[in-house]
Specification:
Length: 201
């Protein structure tokens, strides 16, 4: 299914169930960023962005608003297919027990429904954010390097840079932590990466 404008894409998304969206940032009416933000208000469907913007800050901005991966123009159709397959494969992964709870139910990760609750309220996560919290939460206390997390989330051939992990952790802290500047769960391991502090219950 194809849409030539941002508004048409939003209409299709509202009216139809889709497994993945390939979103060009250069649209005739809305920007791709605007479309991505609106979709993220409604669902966690995987989004692959197509862009001519090559600077790292543009990729980080796209990830911050909810994109799962980026393909920079010019690109080959094979690369797009490979990235789509990788996103769908990662989205299907389910590595935890069905339900895991931390700090007497303050944070709950339910892999059966692929949902996260904080203080009894659902947390709206992107697929990447969900996979990141899943990867960290199943190994509380274990430090992960950024390189390890990149491979878990994007695959070994990802070329977007390890610092994209920092943006995703920042997003999770803003959504999950009571005080994002003094996180309880997502701890920085200086010079390496991150670890999850749980207190499983």
């Amino acid at each position: 299914m194809e849409a030539g404008t941002g508004r048409k894409a939003l209409d299709i998304h509202r009216e139809t169930t889709v497994d993945l969206i390939i979103l060009d940032l250069m649209l005739p009416d809305l920007t791709g960023e605007e479309v991505c933000r609106e979709i993220r208000r409604q669902s966690a469907v995987p989004i692959l962005m197509l862009t001519a913007k090559v600077e790292e800050r543009h990729r980080l901005e796209g990830l911050a608003i909810g994109a799962d991966d980026y393909v920079i123009k010019p690109f080959s159709p094979r690369e797009v297919v490979a990235r789509v397959q990788a996103i769908l494969r990662r989205s299907a992964d389910d590595l935890l027990a069905e339900r895991i709870s931390f700090h007497d139910g303050d944070l709950i990760v339910d892999t059966r429904t692929k949902t996260v609750c904080k203080a009894g309220q659902p947390v709206h996560l992107t697929p990447i954010e969900y996979r990141l919290i899943q990867a960290l939460a199943r190994n509380p206390g274990r430090p992960f390097s950024r390189e390890e997390l990149v491979e878990k989330l994007f695959g070994f051939d990802y070329s977007g840079g390890e610092r994209t992990i920092d943006q995703h952790v920042k997003n999770l802290r803003n959504k999950v932590e009571s005080d994002p500047k003094n996180p309880t769960y997502f701890k920085t391991v200086f010079g390496l990466g991150y670890r999850f502090e749980g207190g499983e219950s």
